[in-house]
What we know:
Elements: H1 7-24, H2 43-46, E1 49-52, E2 56-58, E3 62-66, E4 70-72, E5 78-80, E6 85-88, E7 93-96, E8 104-108, E9 114-122, E10 126-127, E11 131-132, E12 138-142, E13 149-159, E14 164-165, E15 173-176, E16 179-183, E17 188-189, E18 192-194, E19 197-201, E20 206-212, E21 215-218, E22 226-233, E23 236-239, E24 246-252, E25 255-258, E26 265-272, E27 275-278, E28 284-291, E29 294-297, E30 303-309, E31 312-315, E32 323-329, E33 332-335, E34 344-351, E35 354-357, E36 363-367, E37 370-372, E38 375-378, E39 383-387, E40 390-392, E41 395-398, E42 404-406, E43 409-411, E44 414-417, E45 423-425, E46 428-430, E47 433-436, E48 442-449, E49 452-455, E50 463-469, E51 472-475, E52 482-484, E53 488-489, E54 492-495, E55 501-508, E56 511-514, E57 522-528, E58 531-534, E59 541-543, E60 546-548, E61 551-554, E62 560-566, E63 569-570, E64 573-579
Amino acid sequence: MKSVRTIPAIIAFCCAAQLVHAQFGGGGPLSPTAPPAPTMLTLSEVEPRTPITGPVTITVPGSYYLTTNITVSSGNAIVINVSGVTLDLRGFTISSTSASASGSGIANDGFNDIRILNGSITGTAFYSAGFGGGGFANGIYCSGSPHNVVVTDVNVSGIGGNGIYLSAPGNSTVIDHCTANTIAGNGFTADSVANSVAYVCGGYAIYATTVLNCAGSTTMGGFDAIHAIGTAENCSGIASNGDSGVYAFTAQNCYGQNNANGYGIYVGGSAVNCSGISFNGPGLYAQYIAQNCFGISSNAYGLSANNAQNCYGIAYGNGGNGISADNAQNCFGITSGSGGANGLGANGIAEGCYGICSNATGCGVYAGNTAQNCYGQNYLAGNGVFSFGNVINCNGVSSNGFGVFANNTAHNCTGSSYGQDGIHVLATAENCSGSSVVSNGVYAGGVALNCSGASANNINPGLFAGTAENCYGTNSSVGFGMYVTGSASGCYGVSANGTGLHVGRNAQNCVGTTGGSGGPGLTAFSAYNCTGTSSGTGDGVVVTKIASGCYGSSSTGTGLTADDAIYCEYSSISAVNNVGGVSP
Protein backbone atom coordinates (compact mmCIF):
# COMPACT_ATOMS: atom_id res chain seq x y z
CA MET A 1 0.00 0.00 0.00
CA LYS A 2 1.26 3.43 -0.98
CA SER A 3 2.17 5.80 1.87
CA VAL A 4 -0.32 8.57 2.70
CA ARG A 5 2.63 10.96 2.76
CA THR A 6 2.65 11.11 -1.10
CA ILE A 7 -0.75 12.79 -1.24
CA PRO A 8 0.52 16.27 -0.24
CA ALA A 9 3.19 16.05 -2.97
CA ILE A 10 0.60 15.32 -5.67
CA ILE A 11 -1.54 18.25 -4.52
CA ALA A 12 1.47 20.55 -4.68
CA PHE A 13 2.32 19.47 -8.28
CA CYS A 14 -1.21 20.18 -9.51
CA CYS A 15 -1.23 23.63 -7.96
CA ALA A 16 2.08 24.47 -9.65
CA ALA A 17 0.72 23.41 -13.04
CA GLN A 18 -2.29 25.66 -12.65
CA LEU A 19 -0.05 28.56 -11.77
CA VAL A 20 2.10 28.09 -14.89
CA HIS A 21 -0.99 27.89 -17.12
CA ALA A 22 -2.39 31.06 -15.62
CA GLN A 23 0.91 32.94 -15.99
CA PHE A 24 1.66 32.11 -19.64
CA GLY A 25 -1.85 31.96 -21.07
CA GLY A 26 -2.00 28.26 -22.18
CA GLY A 27 -1.39 26.77 -25.78
CA GLY A 28 -2.12 28.29 -29.29
CA PRO A 29 -5.40 27.99 -31.29
CA LEU A 30 -6.25 24.62 -32.82
CA SER A 31 -8.11 25.87 -36.00
CA PRO A 32 -5.92 26.17 -39.26
CA THR A 33 -5.27 29.67 -40.52
CA ALA A 34 -5.49 28.65 -44.29
CA PRO A 35 -6.27 25.60 -46.49
CA PRO A 36 -3.33 23.16 -46.96
CA ALA A 37 -1.16 23.87 -50.00
CA PRO A 38 -1.05 21.19 -52.83
CA THR A 39 1.96 18.89 -52.68
CA MET A 40 1.50 16.91 -55.99
CA LEU A 41 2.66 18.03 -59.44
CA THR A 42 0.06 18.53 -62.15
CA LEU A 43 0.08 16.36 -65.29
CA SER A 44 1.45 19.27 -67.30
CA GLU A 45 4.23 19.70 -64.73
CA VAL A 46 5.12 15.98 -64.85
CA GLU A 47 5.08 15.87 -68.67
CA PRO A 48 4.47 19.21 -70.31
CA ARG A 49 2.13 18.53 -73.26
CA THR A 50 1.18 20.68 -76.18
CA PRO A 51 -2.31 20.37 -77.69
CA ILE A 52 -2.76 19.99 -81.44
CA THR A 53 -5.99 21.12 -83.02
CA GLY A 54 -5.17 20.98 -86.73
CA PRO A 55 -2.46 20.34 -89.32
CA VAL A 56 0.93 21.22 -87.88
CA THR A 57 4.69 20.94 -88.27
CA ILE A 58 6.41 20.03 -84.98
CA THR A 59 9.79 21.69 -84.61
CA VAL A 60 10.29 21.57 -80.82
CA PRO A 61 10.97 18.37 -78.85
CA GLY A 62 8.28 17.45 -76.38
CA SER A 63 4.97 15.73 -75.86
CA TYR A 64 1.99 16.55 -78.08
CA TYR A 65 -1.62 15.38 -78.10
CA LEU A 66 -4.66 15.74 -80.31
CA THR A 67 -7.75 17.44 -78.98
CA THR A 68 -9.94 16.68 -82.02
CA ASN A 69 -10.11 14.85 -85.33
CA ILE A 70 -7.98 16.34 -88.12
CA THR A 71 -8.95 16.31 -91.79
CA VAL A 72 -6.90 17.60 -94.71
CA SER A 73 -7.86 17.94 -98.36
CA SER A 74 -4.33 17.17 -99.61
CA GLY A 75 -0.72 16.75 -98.49
CA ASN A 76 0.53 16.02 -94.97
CA ALA A 77 -1.50 16.39 -91.81
CA ILE A 78 1.30 16.36 -89.20
CA VAL A 79 5.01 16.70 -89.93
CA ILE A 80 7.70 15.92 -87.32
CA ASN A 81 10.85 17.94 -87.98
CA VAL A 82 12.73 17.33 -84.73
CA SER A 83 13.92 14.41 -82.60
CA GLY A 84 12.50 13.60 -79.19
CA VAL A 85 8.76 13.82 -79.86
CA THR A 86 5.84 11.90 -78.35
CA LEU A 87 2.56 12.25 -80.23
CA ASP A 88 -0.60 10.97 -78.54
CA LEU A 89 -3.57 10.84 -80.89
CA ARG A 90 -5.87 10.20 -77.89
CA GLY A 91 -8.26 8.08 -79.93
CA PHE A 92 -8.85 10.74 -82.58
CA THR A 93 -8.63 10.23 -86.35
CA ILE A 94 -6.42 11.89 -88.94
CA SER A 95 -7.99 11.69 -92.39
CA SER A 96 -7.61 12.99 -95.93
CA THR A 97 -10.21 13.72 -98.60
CA SER A 98 -7.67 14.20 -101.40
CA ALA A 99 -8.98 12.99 -104.75
CA SER A 100 -5.64 11.32 -105.48
CA ALA A 101 -3.28 9.82 -102.94
CA SER A 102 -0.91 12.47 -101.55
CA GLY A 103 1.00 13.26 -98.41
CA SER A 104 1.10 11.40 -95.13
CA GLY A 105 -1.08 11.36 -92.08
CA ILE A 106 2.11 11.73 -90.05
CA ALA A 107 5.45 12.39 -91.74
CA ASN A 108 8.79 12.06 -89.96
CA ASP A 109 11.65 13.56 -91.93
CA GLY A 110 14.27 11.15 -90.57
CA PHE A 111 14.30 12.20 -86.90
CA ASN A 112 15.05 9.90 -83.97
CA ASP A 113 13.39 9.07 -80.64
CA ILE A 114 9.84 9.39 -81.85
CA ARG A 115 6.75 7.79 -80.28
CA ILE A 116 3.30 7.82 -81.86
CA LEU A 117 0.33 6.17 -80.22
CA ASN A 118 -3.39 5.69 -79.76
CA GLY A 119 -5.41 6.74 -82.79
CA SER A 120 -6.41 6.22 -86.41
CA ILE A 121 -5.31 7.41 -89.84
CA THR A 122 -7.69 6.95 -92.76
CA GLY A 123 -7.88 7.69 -96.47
CA THR A 124 -10.28 6.86 -99.26
CA ALA A 125 -8.30 4.15 -101.10
CA PHE A 126 -10.24 1.00 -101.95
CA TYR A 127 -9.59 -2.40 -103.53
CA SER A 128 -11.65 -3.97 -106.27
CA ALA A 129 -9.49 -6.17 -108.51
CA GLY A 130 -6.91 -3.41 -108.04
CA PHE A 131 -6.41 -0.33 -105.88
CA GLY A 132 -8.09 3.01 -106.52
CA GLY A 133 -9.29 6.09 -104.66
CA GLY A 134 -7.42 8.91 -102.94
CA GLY A 135 -6.63 10.11 -99.44
CA PHE A 136 -3.16 9.78 -97.98
CA ALA A 137 -0.27 8.29 -99.94
CA ASN A 138 1.09 7.03 -96.58
CA GLY A 139 -0.36 6.58 -93.12
CA ILE A 140 2.80 7.14 -91.11
CA TYR A 141 5.97 7.58 -93.13
CA CYS A 142 9.59 8.02 -91.99
CA SER A 143 12.07 9.14 -94.60
CA GLY A 144 15.79 8.49 -94.22
CA SER A 145 16.89 5.99 -91.58
CA PRO A 146 15.66 7.18 -88.18
CA HIS A 147 16.36 5.28 -84.96
CA ASN A 148 14.18 4.52 -81.95
CA VAL A 149 10.82 5.17 -83.56
CA VAL A 150 7.88 3.41 -81.88
CA VAL A 151 4.26 3.27 -83.04
CA THR A 152 1.65 1.59 -80.84
CA ASP A 153 -2.13 1.21 -80.95
CA VAL A 154 -2.57 2.97 -84.29
CA ASN A 155 -5.05 1.90 -86.97
CA VAL A 156 -4.51 2.79 -90.62
CA SER A 157 -6.92 2.13 -93.50
CA GLY A 158 -7.67 3.19 -97.05
CA ILE A 159 -4.08 4.27 -97.78
CA GLY A 160 -2.79 4.70 -101.34
CA GLY A 161 0.82 3.77 -100.46
CA ASN A 162 2.38 2.45 -97.24
CA GLY A 163 0.38 1.98 -94.06
CA ILE A 164 3.09 2.51 -91.45
CA TYR A 165 6.63 2.77 -92.78
CA LEU A 166 9.33 3.38 -90.14
CA SER A 167 12.38 2.82 -92.38
CA ALA A 168 14.05 -0.33 -93.58
CA PRO A 169 14.61 -3.00 -90.90
CA GLY A 170 17.68 -2.68 -88.73
CA ASN A 171 17.18 0.75 -87.13
CA SER A 172 15.47 -0.08 -83.81
CA THR A 173 11.99 0.79 -84.99
CA VAL A 174 8.91 -0.90 -83.52
CA ILE A 175 5.28 -1.32 -84.51
CA ASP A 176 3.08 -2.89 -81.82
CA HIS A 177 -0.67 -3.53 -81.47
CA CYS A 178 -1.52 -1.85 -84.75
CA THR A 179 -3.93 -2.67 -87.56
CA ALA A 180 -3.89 -1.92 -91.27
CA ASN A 181 -6.52 -2.57 -93.90
CA THR A 182 -6.76 -1.76 -97.60
CA ILE A 183 -3.21 -0.55 -98.10
CA ALA A 184 -1.93 -0.20 -101.67
CA GLY A 185 1.73 -0.57 -100.60
CA ASN A 186 3.30 -2.27 -97.58
CA GLY A 187 1.07 -2.62 -94.56
CA PHE A 188 3.83 -2.32 -91.93
CA THR A 189 7.58 -1.85 -92.37
CA ALA A 190 9.86 -1.68 -89.31
CA ASP A 191 12.65 -3.48 -87.51
CA SER A 192 10.14 -5.24 -85.25
CA VAL A 193 6.41 -5.75 -85.71
CA ALA A 194 4.38 -7.44 -82.99
CA ASN A 195 0.76 -8.14 -82.10
CA SER A 196 -0.47 -6.51 -85.30
CA VAL A 197 -2.56 -7.33 -88.37
CA ALA A 198 -2.40 -5.99 -91.93
CA TYR A 199 -4.96 -7.17 -94.49
CA VAL A 200 -5.61 -6.43 -98.16
CA CYS A 201 -2.17 -5.05 -98.93
CA GLY A 202 -0.71 -4.44 -102.38
CA GLY A 203 2.88 -4.87 -101.17
CA TYR A 204 4.21 -6.80 -98.20
CA ALA A 205 1.57 -7.01 -95.52
CA ILE A 206 4.36 -6.99 -92.90
CA TYR A 207 8.06 -6.50 -93.64
CA ALA A 208 10.45 -6.60 -90.68
CA THR A 209 13.44 -8.28 -89.11
CA THR A 210 11.28 -9.85 -86.42
CA VAL A 211 7.56 -10.51 -86.67
CA LEU A 212 5.70 -11.80 -83.61
CA ASN A 213 2.03 -12.68 -83.16
CA CYS A 214 0.97 -11.10 -86.43
CA ALA A 215 -1.30 -11.78 -89.40
CA GLY A 216 -1.33 -10.37 -92.91
CA SER A 217 -2.66 -10.82 -96.43
CA THR A 218 -1.59 -9.54 -99.84
CA THR A 219 -3.46 -9.04 -103.10
CA MET A 220 -0.65 -8.50 -105.61
CA GLY A 221 2.05 -10.76 -107.03
CA GLY A 222 5.71 -10.54 -106.04
CA PHE A 223 5.18 -9.81 -102.33
CA ASP A 224 5.12 -12.04 -99.25
CA ALA A 225 2.27 -11.59 -96.81
CA ILE A 226 4.65 -11.93 -93.84
CA HIS A 227 8.30 -11.23 -94.64
CA ALA A 228 10.67 -11.66 -91.69
CA ILE A 229 14.35 -11.22 -92.44
CA GLY A 230 15.01 -12.97 -89.14
CA THR A 231 12.27 -14.65 -87.13
CA ALA A 232 8.54 -15.07 -87.61
CA GLU A 233 6.72 -16.51 -84.60
CA ASN A 234 3.01 -17.21 -84.12
CA CYS A 235 2.20 -15.60 -87.46
CA SER A 236 -0.33 -16.16 -90.23
CA GLY A 237 0.11 -14.98 -93.80
CA ILE A 238 -2.01 -15.36 -96.93
CA ALA A 239 -0.68 -14.41 -100.36
CA SER A 240 -3.08 -14.26 -103.28
CA ASN A 241 -0.40 -14.25 -105.96
CA GLY A 242 3.31 -14.72 -106.41
CA ASP A 243 5.63 -15.16 -103.47
CA SER A 244 4.97 -16.63 -100.01
CA GLY A 245 2.31 -16.58 -97.36
CA VAL A 246 5.10 -16.49 -94.76
CA TYR A 247 8.78 -15.89 -95.55
CA ALA A 248 11.37 -16.05 -92.76
CA PHE A 249 14.82 -17.26 -91.88
CA THR A 250 13.36 -18.96 -88.80
CA ALA A 251 9.66 -19.67 -88.38
CA GLN A 252 7.85 -21.08 -85.37
CA ASN A 253 4.14 -21.78 -84.93
CA CYS A 254 3.30 -20.12 -88.24
CA TYR A 255 0.67 -20.66 -90.92
CA GLY A 256 1.27 -19.67 -94.53
CA GLN A 257 -1.04 -19.90 -97.53
CA ASN A 258 -0.58 -19.06 -101.18
CA ASN A 259 -3.60 -19.01 -103.47
CA ALA A 260 -1.50 -19.09 -106.66
CA ASN A 261 1.91 -20.60 -107.54
CA GLY A 262 4.08 -19.29 -104.71
CA TYR A 263 5.11 -20.91 -101.43
CA GLY A 264 2.77 -21.38 -98.51
CA ILE A 265 5.78 -20.97 -96.19
CA TYR A 266 9.38 -20.38 -97.26
CA VAL A 267 12.05 -20.62 -94.54
CA GLY A 268 15.73 -20.00 -95.22
CA GLY A 269 16.71 -21.75 -92.00
CA SER A 270 14.51 -23.82 -89.70
CA ALA A 271 10.74 -24.21 -89.34
CA VAL A 272 9.10 -25.57 -86.18
CA ASN A 273 5.39 -26.34 -85.74
CA CYS A 274 4.47 -24.64 -89.00
CA SER A 275 1.82 -25.32 -91.66
CA GLY A 276 2.05 -24.27 -95.29
CA ILE A 277 -0.54 -24.56 -98.06
CA SER A 278 -0.24 -23.60 -101.72
CA PHE A 279 -2.63 -24.16 -104.57
CA ASN A 280 -0.02 -24.37 -107.32
CA GLY A 281 3.31 -23.95 -105.55
CA PRO A 282 5.15 -25.77 -102.75
CA GLY A 283 3.29 -25.99 -99.45
CA LEU A 284 6.25 -25.56 -97.08
CA TYR A 285 9.97 -25.23 -97.76
CA ALA A 286 12.69 -25.17 -95.08
CA GLN A 287 16.27 -24.98 -96.27
CA TYR A 288 17.67 -26.59 -93.12
CA ILE A 289 15.20 -28.23 -90.71
CA ALA A 290 11.45 -28.72 -90.67
CA GLN A 291 10.21 -30.08 -87.38
CA ASN A 292 6.59 -30.95 -86.56
CA CYS A 293 5.49 -29.24 -89.75
CA PHE A 294 2.71 -29.76 -92.30
CA GLY A 295 2.74 -28.93 -96.00
CA ILE A 296 0.17 -29.40 -98.74
CA SER A 297 0.11 -28.47 -102.43
CA SER A 298 -2.14 -29.08 -105.39
CA ASN A 299 0.55 -28.97 -108.08
CA ALA A 300 3.97 -29.07 -106.38
CA TYR A 301 5.61 -30.83 -103.44
CA GLY A 302 3.79 -30.70 -100.12
CA LEU A 303 6.82 -30.18 -97.85
CA SER A 304 10.53 -29.91 -98.59
CA ALA A 305 13.46 -29.61 -96.18
CA ASN A 306 17.08 -30.61 -95.81
CA ASN A 307 16.07 -32.49 -92.68
CA ALA A 308 12.42 -33.26 -91.98
CA GLN A 309 11.41 -34.49 -88.53
CA ASN A 310 7.88 -35.50 -87.52
CA CYS A 311 6.44 -33.85 -90.61
CA TYR A 312 3.40 -34.47 -92.82
CA GLY A 313 3.26 -33.62 -96.51
CA ILE A 314 0.57 -34.03 -99.18
CA ALA A 315 0.80 -33.36 -102.93
CA TYR A 316 -2.31 -33.56 -105.09
CA GLY A 317 -3.03 -33.14 -108.78
CA ASN A 318 0.12 -32.86 -110.85
CA GLY A 319 2.24 -32.18 -107.81
CA GLY A 320 5.59 -33.55 -106.72
CA ASN A 321 6.58 -35.49 -103.62
CA GLY A 322 4.40 -35.37 -100.57
CA ILE A 323 7.64 -34.84 -98.63
CA SER A 324 11.07 -34.13 -100.18
CA ALA A 325 14.10 -34.16 -97.90
CA ASP A 326 17.74 -35.06 -97.72
CA ASN A 327 16.92 -36.94 -94.52
CA ALA A 328 13.48 -37.67 -93.10
CA GLN A 329 12.58 -39.01 -89.68
CA ASN A 330 9.12 -40.06 -88.48
CA CYS A 331 7.44 -38.38 -91.43
CA PHE A 332 4.30 -39.10 -93.46
CA GLY A 333 4.05 -38.26 -97.16
CA ILE A 334 1.25 -38.74 -99.70
CA THR A 335 1.26 -37.94 -103.40
CA SER A 336 -1.03 -38.40 -106.34
CA GLY A 337 1.25 -36.31 -108.53
CA SER A 338 2.54 -37.54 -111.87
CA GLY A 339 6.04 -37.78 -113.33
CA GLY A 340 7.64 -40.09 -110.78
CA ALA A 341 6.64 -38.18 -107.67
CA ASN A 342 7.05 -40.06 -104.38
CA GLY A 343 4.88 -40.12 -101.30
CA LEU A 344 8.06 -39.51 -99.31
CA GLY A 345 11.42 -38.94 -100.98
CA ALA A 346 14.69 -38.76 -99.01
CA ASN A 347 17.97 -38.28 -100.86
CA GLY A 348 19.80 -39.74 -97.88
CA ILE A 349 18.05 -41.57 -95.03
CA ALA A 350 14.37 -42.17 -94.36
CA GLU A 351 13.73 -43.46 -90.85
CA GLY A 352 10.39 -44.31 -89.26
CA CYS A 353 8.54 -42.89 -92.27
CA TYR A 354 5.27 -43.65 -94.02
CA GLY A 355 4.65 -42.93 -97.69
CA ILE A 356 1.76 -43.46 -100.09
CA CYS A 357 1.93 -42.93 -103.86
CA SER A 358 -0.74 -43.34 -106.51
CA ASN A 359 1.18 -42.70 -109.72
CA ALA A 360 2.69 -45.31 -112.04
CA THR A 361 6.38 -44.50 -111.62
CA GLY A 362 6.88 -43.06 -108.14
CA CYS A 363 7.42 -44.76 -104.79
CA GLY A 364 5.59 -44.78 -101.52
CA VAL A 365 8.93 -44.25 -99.76
CA TYR A 366 12.12 -43.43 -101.68
CA ALA A 367 15.54 -43.31 -99.99
CA GLY A 368 18.76 -42.54 -101.81
CA ASN A 369 20.85 -44.18 -99.11
CA THR A 370 18.87 -46.06 -96.45
CA ALA A 371 15.23 -46.68 -95.57
CA GLN A 372 14.74 -47.91 -92.01
CA ASN A 373 11.53 -48.75 -90.13
CA CYS A 374 9.43 -47.42 -92.99
CA TYR A 375 6.15 -48.32 -94.67
CA GLY A 376 5.57 -47.52 -98.33
CA GLN A 377 2.68 -48.21 -100.65
CA ASN A 378 2.01 -47.60 -104.33
CA TYR A 379 -1.45 -48.19 -105.74
CA LEU A 380 -0.23 -48.45 -109.36
CA ALA A 381 3.03 -49.57 -110.99
CA GLY A 382 5.54 -47.76 -108.79
CA ASN A 383 7.43 -49.26 -105.85
CA GLY A 384 6.28 -49.44 -102.25
CA VAL A 385 9.72 -48.85 -100.66
CA PHE A 386 12.78 -48.10 -102.80
CA SER A 387 16.39 -47.48 -101.80
CA PHE A 388 19.61 -47.22 -103.79
CA GLY A 389 21.35 -48.42 -100.64
CA ASN A 390 19.83 -50.45 -97.81
CA VAL A 391 16.32 -51.19 -96.61
CA ILE A 392 15.96 -52.18 -92.94
CA ASN A 393 12.82 -53.22 -91.04
CA CYS A 394 10.56 -51.93 -93.78
CA ASN A 395 7.21 -52.97 -95.23
CA GLY A 396 6.40 -52.24 -98.86
CA VAL A 397 3.24 -52.83 -100.87
CA SER A 398 2.65 -52.21 -104.59
CA SER A 399 -0.03 -53.15 -107.06
CA ASN A 400 2.27 -53.53 -110.06
CA GLY A 401 5.70 -52.42 -108.90
CA PHE A 402 8.18 -53.86 -106.42
CA GLY A 403 6.91 -54.05 -102.86
CA VAL A 404 10.44 -53.42 -101.54
CA PHE A 405 13.45 -52.64 -103.75
CA ALA A 406 17.01 -52.38 -102.40
CA ASN A 407 20.04 -51.79 -104.57
CA ASN A 408 22.27 -53.15 -101.81
CA THR A 409 20.69 -55.04 -98.90
CA ALA A 410 17.28 -55.65 -97.35
CA HIS A 411 17.09 -56.69 -93.70
CA ASN A 412 13.96 -57.71 -91.74
CA CYS A 413 11.65 -56.52 -94.50
CA THR A 414 8.23 -57.50 -95.78
CA GLY A 415 7.10 -56.83 -99.33
CA SER A 416 4.11 -57.70 -101.46
CA SER A 417 3.10 -56.99 -105.04
CA TYR A 418 0.62 -58.20 -107.56
CA GLY A 419 2.59 -57.54 -110.74
CA GLN A 420 6.27 -57.43 -109.67
CA ASP A 421 8.53 -58.93 -107.03
CA GLY A 422 7.37 -58.62 -103.44
CA ILE A 423 11.00 -57.96 -102.43
CA HIS A 424 13.69 -57.26 -105.01
CA VAL A 425 17.28 -56.96 -103.74
CA LEU A 426 20.33 -56.79 -105.97
CA ALA A 427 22.74 -57.93 -103.26
CA THR A 428 21.63 -59.46 -99.95
CA ALA A 429 18.22 -60.12 -98.41
CA GLU A 430 18.17 -61.22 -94.76
CA ASN A 431 15.18 -62.16 -92.60
CA CYS A 432 12.81 -60.97 -95.31
CA SER A 433 9.40 -62.11 -96.44
CA GLY A 434 7.91 -61.39 -99.86
CA SER A 435 4.88 -62.36 -101.89
CA SER A 436 3.74 -61.79 -105.45
CA VAL A 437 0.90 -62.99 -107.63
CA VAL A 438 2.64 -62.89 -111.00
CA SER A 439 6.36 -62.53 -110.15
CA ASN A 440 8.94 -63.51 -107.53
CA GLY A 441 7.97 -63.37 -103.89
CA VAL A 442 11.59 -62.60 -102.98
CA TYR A 443 14.38 -61.86 -105.46
CA ALA A 444 17.94 -61.68 -104.09
CA GLY A 445 20.55 -61.23 -106.78
CA GLY A 446 23.26 -62.08 -104.27
CA VAL A 447 22.47 -63.83 -101.01
CA ALA A 448 19.19 -64.71 -99.31
CA LEU A 449 19.43 -65.50 -95.56
CA ASN A 450 16.48 -66.65 -93.46
CA CYS A 451 14.00 -65.43 -96.05
CA SER A 452 10.62 -66.65 -97.24
CA GLY A 453 8.92 -65.99 -100.55
CA ALA A 454 5.59 -66.91 -102.11
CA SER A 455 4.39 -66.67 -105.70
CA ALA A 456 1.34 -67.73 -107.68
CA ASN A 457 3.00 -67.34 -111.07
CA ASN A 458 3.47 -70.23 -113.49
CA ILE A 459 7.13 -69.34 -114.11
CA ASN A 460 8.59 -67.18 -111.33
CA PRO A 461 9.60 -68.82 -108.05
CA GLY A 462 8.46 -67.95 -104.59
CA LEU A 463 12.09 -67.14 -103.79
CA PHE A 464 14.98 -66.49 -106.22
CA ALA A 465 18.56 -66.06 -105.02
CA GLY A 466 22.18 -66.35 -106.06
CA THR A 467 22.94 -68.12 -102.79
CA ALA A 468 20.36 -69.12 -100.18
CA GLU A 469 20.62 -70.18 -96.56
CA ASN A 470 17.74 -71.20 -94.27
CA CYS A 471 15.17 -69.94 -96.74
CA TYR A 472 11.66 -70.99 -97.70
CA GLY A 473 9.98 -70.60 -101.08
CA THR A 474 6.54 -71.63 -102.26
CA ASN A 475 4.65 -71.46 -105.53
CA SER A 476 0.94 -72.21 -105.74
CA SER A 477 1.05 -72.75 -109.52
CA VAL A 478 3.53 -74.51 -111.82
CA GLY A 479 6.50 -72.26 -111.09
CA PHE A 480 9.46 -73.01 -108.84
CA GLY A 481 8.99 -72.95 -105.10
CA MET A 482 12.59 -71.73 -104.80
CA TYR A 483 15.23 -71.15 -107.47
CA VAL A 484 18.89 -70.73 -106.46
CA THR A 485 21.53 -70.18 -109.11
CA GLY A 486 24.41 -71.00 -106.77
CA SER A 487 24.40 -73.01 -103.55
CA ALA A 488 21.65 -73.52 -100.98
CA SER A 489 21.83 -74.65 -97.37
CA GLY A 490 18.99 -75.43 -95.00
CA CYS A 491 16.36 -74.38 -97.55
CA TYR A 492 12.85 -75.57 -98.23
CA GLY A 493 11.04 -75.22 -101.56
CA VAL A 494 7.44 -76.13 -102.32
CA SER A 495 5.54 -75.98 -105.60
CA ALA A 496 1.99 -77.09 -106.29
CA ASN A 497 2.80 -78.35 -109.79
CA GLY A 498 6.35 -77.26 -110.56
CA THR A 499 9.80 -77.85 -109.13
CA GLY A 500 9.88 -77.46 -105.36
CA LEU A 501 13.56 -76.43 -105.04
CA HIS A 502 16.14 -75.88 -107.80
CA VAL A 503 19.80 -75.38 -106.82
CA GLY A 504 22.33 -74.59 -109.56
CA ARG A 505 25.35 -75.75 -107.55
CA ASN A 506 25.36 -77.55 -104.23
CA ALA A 507 22.32 -78.24 -102.06
CA GLN A 508 22.94 -79.12 -98.43
CA ASN A 509 20.33 -80.02 -95.81
CA CYS A 510 17.57 -78.89 -98.15
CA VAL A 511 14.02 -80.07 -98.82
CA GLY A 512 12.00 -79.80 -101.99
CA THR A 513 8.46 -80.99 -102.63
CA THR A 514 6.06 -80.88 -105.53
CA GLY A 515 2.49 -81.98 -105.87
CA GLY A 516 2.16 -82.49 -109.61
CA SER A 517 3.87 -83.51 -112.79
CA GLY A 518 5.61 -80.25 -113.62
CA GLY A 519 8.98 -81.03 -112.10
CA PRO A 520 10.91 -82.82 -109.36
CA GLY A 521 10.71 -82.07 -105.68
CA LEU A 522 14.40 -81.10 -105.59
CA THR A 523 16.99 -80.65 -108.32
CA ALA A 524 20.67 -79.73 -107.85
CA PHE A 525 24.15 -80.14 -109.31
CA SER A 526 25.21 -81.92 -106.13
CA ALA A 527 23.10 -82.68 -103.07
CA TYR A 528 24.08 -83.56 -99.52
CA ASN A 529 21.59 -84.68 -96.86
CA CYS A 530 18.67 -83.47 -98.92
CA THR A 531 15.11 -84.65 -99.32
CA GLY A 532 12.93 -84.45 -102.40
CA THR A 533 9.39 -85.70 -102.77
CA SER A 534 6.74 -85.71 -105.45
CA SER A 535 3.14 -86.65 -104.86
CA GLY A 536 2.51 -86.74 -108.63
CA THR A 537 4.40 -87.97 -111.65
CA GLY A 538 7.49 -85.84 -111.10
CA ASP A 539 10.73 -87.19 -109.66
CA GLY A 540 11.62 -86.83 -106.00
CA VAL A 541 15.31 -85.82 -106.29
CA VAL A 542 17.24 -85.10 -109.48
CA VAL A 543 21.01 -84.54 -109.05
CA THR A 544 23.41 -83.98 -111.94
CA LYS A 545 26.49 -85.32 -110.14
CA ILE A 546 26.66 -86.60 -106.57
CA ALA A 547 23.79 -87.22 -104.18
CA SER A 548 25.02 -88.10 -100.69
CA GLY A 549 22.83 -88.97 -97.73
CA CYS A 550 19.72 -87.93 -99.63
CA TYR A 551 16.14 -89.17 -99.63
CA GLY A 552 13.96 -89.14 -102.72
CA SER A 553 10.46 -90.40 -103.32
CA SER A 554 7.77 -90.06 -105.95
CA SER A 555 4.27 -91.44 -106.25
CA THR A 556 4.70 -92.48 -109.89
CA GLY A 557 8.07 -91.05 -110.97
CA THR A 558 11.67 -91.81 -110.02
CA GLY A 559 12.44 -91.32 -106.36
CA LEU A 560 16.09 -90.28 -106.86
CA THR A 561 18.21 -89.71 -109.98
CA ALA A 562 21.97 -89.01 -109.80
CA ASP A 563 25.27 -89.89 -111.45
CA ASP A 564 26.58 -91.06 -108.11
CA ALA A 565 24.30 -91.88 -105.19
CA ILE A 566 26.03 -92.45 -101.86
CA TYR A 567 24.12 -93.72 -98.86
CA CYS A 568 20.82 -92.46 -100.19
CA GLU A 569 17.28 -93.65 -99.53
CA TYR A 570 14.71 -93.71 -102.28
CA SER A 571 11.43 -95.14 -103.50
CA SER A 572 13.15 -95.90 -106.81
CA ILE A 573 16.52 -94.91 -108.23
CA SER A 574 18.31 -94.14 -111.46
CA ALA A 575 22.06 -93.89 -110.86
CA VAL A 576 25.27 -94.78 -112.68
CA ASN A 577 26.86 -95.63 -109.32
CA ASN A 578 24.79 -96.48 -106.29
CA VAL A 579 26.79 -96.93 -103.09
CA GLY A 580 25.04 -98.00 -99.93
CA GLY A 581 21.62 -97.08 -101.26
CA VAL A 582 18.46 -98.18 -99.50
CA SER A 583 15.03 -98.66 -100.97
CA PRO A 584 12.31 -98.62 -98.34
